Amino acid sequence: MSVQDDAVHPRMVSGDLTGVEFPTGVDAFLAAGPAFLTTALRATGALAADNAVEEIVTWREFFGGGMGRKLALDVRYTRPPEELSTALFAKFTREFGDPLREIFSPAMEPEVRFALLSRQPGFPVRVPLCGFGDYSAGHKSGLLITERVAYGEGGIEPIDDKCLDYRIANPLERYQALTRSMAALAGHHCAGRFGAAIEAGFPYDPAAALAQPLIPFDAAHLDGLLDKLEAFAAEAPQLLPATVRDPAFLAAFRPAAAMVLEKEQALRAFLYDQADMAALCHWNMNLDNAWFWRDAAGTLQCGLLDWGGVGQMHLAMAFIGMTCAAECDFLKEHEDALIDLLLAEYHKASGLVLDRERFVLSLKVSIALVGLAWMLDAPSLIRAEIPDLSLLKDRFDPEIRDRFLPRAQLHLMTVFLDTWQRLDLGSAVAGI
Predict the structure, then answer these.
(1) Alpha carbon distance 432, 418 (integer Å)
(2) Which tens digit of pLDDT belongs to each residue from 204-222?
(3) How confident is the model over 372-390, as pLDDT tens digits?
(4) In b/e form, how buried is each residue of 120-141, taking b as 16+ CB within 10 angstroms?
């Protein structure tokens, strides 16, 4: 790399949070080697001042997720540290020159800030132990180093892929564990146990949030998306439940969706005005962003990872982030009980009581907004990967099941539309 290129795309940058100079990519990380790791882990207290990383014994690139390149590392220390494992995981922002770098990179800043916060004693939820984390806003570069979760080993259950809940024998246990964790973190925050750290690092700023629209299109574009949805349902009815593909439902959905778009600011203001329901939360608490094990009593416990976008948000938004990839029949049977569990565990952790009726209304409004903003592109995205939908037997067809994007897009859209019908979201939106 030339001096000029290095000035524009530096291999090392100074972090805004720790002041440590850290590598911006995999090649620079491996070149910096044990000396950098020693400095970084000492800076956070993960490694004692008289201990060191002697060697990167093995490394391999890990592929998955939407942020940037990732490495699985095995290291050797001068002597074993008290907490940190020899099995580490390193995550970078996207490479310089990547067209999605500008979009994805800023989400890593709160993630590394949260990782550093998680080193506080008595942290209320299990997360991968943080060895180092930092971010340079000026260069939109970040690095996070944590312990590596050993899925399928030592009592930890194998990883759950997104939108494949139907393969799990008892998904309710998993969602109960996730709900308890959500409530524990939110309650810890709202009881004031983090001190000033949350307002300083993760401020609740409704005015700033409302200044940016959530739904990224206008009425004409929405009409086009709904046209494609109706065509998709007519061409591939075998991929959708009968209630969702019903032409009468889709015809009624069209003006209701337009109403959500028209009322977007009022609906979001309704949510942001409920400061009593705002708390520090994981935004995307699907099963693939967790790991599970059983404690001594046999109760399923969970840890949470991939904290991109973490911050203060309405608890209803966090609840959607947890349940949006569940099975429709599962939500119909268990959603109410999970809401009750969340509110009860939140009360236990914070001492505060949240109004259930208002939470449910907020949940309906949140689903309408998020679903409209993010779920209606599914027909186009699926067709881009599988042009001939007639070849697909059903949603369990291997062409869908074994390909992440079509599987996830189809299922998330289906859950949104089924929930719209099941909870009568149009009426909820009309009442705001």
Answers:
(1) 21
(2) 999 999 999 999 999 999 9
(3) 999 999 999 999 999 999 9
(4) eeebbbbbbbbbbbbbbeebbb
